[in-house]
Fold this protein.
Amino acid sequence: MMDKTQKILEKFSFKKGDFADIRIEKGEGISIAIQNGRPEQISYDHDIGVGVRALIDGGWGFVSIVGTKLEEIETALQKAIKIAKATALKTKEKGMITEDYVIEGTYKVNYKNDPRDVPLEQKYEIVADFEKTTRKYSDKIVSTNAAIKNWFQQEIIVNSLGTKVYTEYSNLNILCMATAREGNTMQNVYISKGTTSGWEEIEKFNTTEKGVELAKRALLLLNAEKPPSGKMDIVMDPSLVGVYVHESFGHAEEADSILADDSILKGKMGEQLGSELINIYDDPTIPGLRGSYCYDSEGTKTIKRQLVKEGKQIGYLHSLETAAKMGVEPNGAARAMNFNHRPVVRMGNTYIDAGDQSLEELLEMIKNGVYLENSYGGYVDTAKGEFYFSAQGGHLIENGELGAAIQNVSMSGLCLEVLERTVAVGKDLEFAFPGSCGKASQWVPVHAGGPPLAVKQIVVGGL
Amino acid sequence: MNDMFVKGVNLGLKKGADQIEIFVLEGASDIVQLEKNAIFASESKTITGLGVRAYTKKGLGIATTSLLDKDSIKDSVMKAVKLSKLSPPDDLFSTLPGPFTNYPNVQGLEDKAISDLPTENLTEMAIEAIDSATEKDDVVVSGNFKRVCVTESIFNSLGVDVSQTLSSLTGVIFAKAEVNGDIATSWDFQKVRVNADFKPKQIGKVAAKNAVSLLGSKKIESEELPVILDHRSAMDTLSSIVAAGLDAYEVILGTAYFKDRLGEEITSKEITIKDNPLYAGGVGSAIFDDEGVPHKDLTLIDKGVAKAYFSNSYCANVLGIENTANAQKNSLGSKPHPDLTQVQIEAGTWTVEEMISETKKGIFLKDSALEPSSGSPNISVLIDQGFLIENGEISYPLKETMVGTTIFDLLKNIEGVSKDLINESGSISPAVKLSKASIAGGK
């Protein structure tokens, strides 16, 4: 199929500066969900389609089609070229691509234990145990929702410069949500695990233990204090740190945001942004995490990227286009959700590197404040540099120790101020946030984490 | 084409399914992407695929595919039936809906001027919006303009065999204003089903003005203050509360805020909320829901009293209530769950000016939702489009400020509803004033 697709490109002549690529995707997966003891759904999803891009005279065109018929791919390419030409007439800032960057490669998923070979009944049993253990723990657990999903995807990426890549991607996720309720008080918590490795990771995940842990958390929060409100000193757990580094820094370090004048970090390359304790990386090459992959959706082999070194900004995330515009090497950060979307600059696995202090030392340093744990996600305005994210719960910090539990709460701040106000970095790095990142109407799997962080003077939005 | 899907339904029954449904989407979207005050890219995307839902002995199997050829339909039906036989029974399930003979006549769902709109015209609209945004204000804008035309068809083994074509035009502009390192961002958007209602220049102009108005934002101290929600904020806030509070599926799960509270006064007598998918030209309007059940309008809250749960066929059968035809699928592979279509909130007696002038100190929110967070009734939200009110006047924009309350306190604290309404293609809302909420300030 790769050679036949390449031949389609060869039928067209592209002058210097022009470009086209064709991305053929086939994906399939099974998901099982159980709610309150009932099977919610068992489903099989199957996606086949092609995304075609063309860059002509500096204008971009993108066309997607379902199926992989060669004559339809050729028609899609013709249409993409036509759209690109029309766009070029109206665009002021011309698109460009690194001309001498040609990749040939193959990546095949190498499972220890292929999730596709695990019988449906076995998968169902594991989800059922997770859900039942959580639900049966207490009558106050009014709702439970457990699910497992495995997805396997193959991509062929060819372009007019000669790139020819075959790559596979898979992910496997299990989660359970629980809601505890007493009258008008409700608290919702979840535990999830996401991996690009095989079924062995699910076997290591003890659903009975995790179900009990989840139920206990929900019940603790049900009787927890209302969170305080105002500006205070905080310690974030690795899950919150994951969302913080992803939202506050990762997005602002995406080179398309820099070029679009949409990032607070524009013009700050090489500048000291904050505490020298901070080192930030994005690394899709770490085996097994949700944001791990070998080739990005443009066929570029991805690498580990350091974004912040000892508080100084040193790197961006790049696609072929942003790298060309900034005169640097691409680093494999262009990802597309599926064939129906064009690749945009995205993160993989983003983290703050470990420091050397224990959690107890961090709490002692803060003395009185709030410990926030178990993220519920968040967002950032990269242009303004203001972020918001929420925690499933936490504790008051009283006299340097964890005190009373508090219910779910959100926090907000200015990205750069938070870096300046980071006073201590914990020593235990954990990729505690397996999530999905939304940008340009596309959701891609990511992982994020870090060690606990102690930060001064953050706004906590209590009730 | 429809014949293939009817044959698919029959194949499912032949293979042993008790009931089966095929949900089909066929269409396309054109998108013009904007970046840095210019056209950046143009896209033409497919919206095509089908989802099969099969039940055997109350076990459910779902299969989806992006392909609509005969073999793919057959494969998907066989997969769904196979999975339904492997699935344990859902004892609460009784039947798929149908058949139905009377469907409402909903006007303005497809405008040929949108379906046939040349991509060049979409590009011109986007340029008009950029020019309008940058004409008087020094802003950088991005965003997208999108045309969608899709035909949704549903076939089931009880005789449902319906089809509707929906077209829409959407424009979103994000604007960034910057003066001496002070950065403010904002946006505006329109989504319409009638081409003549689309005003791209206005989108650009409003987005730019909003961004400029937020320059010079300041931090405030934490305290309890009144909060005025502008029309869009009130719409987003109240519809998110009703969506989670009166959802019949959430009632079954035990997580609906207003479970067992129908007939009770849950908020101000000035609040009446309806869900109306029959409104001519409404962006949430449609002839039938995602199970093919004929749409109808529904009063959810009447003068402060909770009146009804909104449901789909599953929930209606489980709870023994009317099926309000609110089934919606999040994706081809998802089971349809109840969701709101098009919320319409009735007018009150205040003017927005009166709300502001009678507030000594408070917060004015623009286009911001005070949504419950993390699946609990707690609300803890960043104000990124808000202003401080001092002595009855809007004083300055805010930064690093959050609002905290609960949905129960929010509803209890509604003390004013505006008599002027916005009508954004069928979504109708007044502005609303809350007597108090907890404000966390960054000062």
Observations:
- Chain A touches chain B through 81 residues (CB under 8 Å).
- The two ends of chain A are 58 Å apart (CA to CA).
- The first helix of chain A runs from residue 2 to 10.
